[in-house]
Amino acid sequence: MSDFSRKADESASRLNEKINSAAQRLEKEGAELIEYLNKEVVPAVRQQSSKALRVAAERLQRLAAFMEEHKSTGEEKKP
């Protein structure tokens, strides 16, 4: 084996090790990110979404009451 071939093989081997190491690290960090999202972010988003829906429902009820009130008032004014 020539010196060039040996050095190319060594370089390829080091590169493969780095790629494997990076892939393992990414898999681990990806799993940790998914766990964090599931434990922390998703529940917080659900809670905030529930609150937002409750506020929206309350405002829609007020709007419906307002519309009903003005509808009946408007009908009385028509000839």
What is the average of the pLDDT values?
89
Extract low-pLDDT stretches: none
Radius of gyration over alpha carbons?
A: 32 Å
Between the first and last Cα atoms, what is the distance in angstroms? Answer: 106 Å
Number of strands: 0
Counting structural domains, the number is: 1
Structural class label: mainly alpha
Form type: rod-shaped
Largest sheet: none
Strand content: under 5%
General description of the model:
There is one protein chain. The chain is an all-alpha fold. It has one domain. It contains 1 helix and no strands. The chain has one helix at 3-77.
Task: Tell me briefly what this model is.
Helices cover 95% and strands 0% of the residues.
Which tags fit this structure?
rod-shaped, about 80 residues, about 0% strand, mainly alpha
List the helices and strands and how they pair.
Elements: H1 3-77
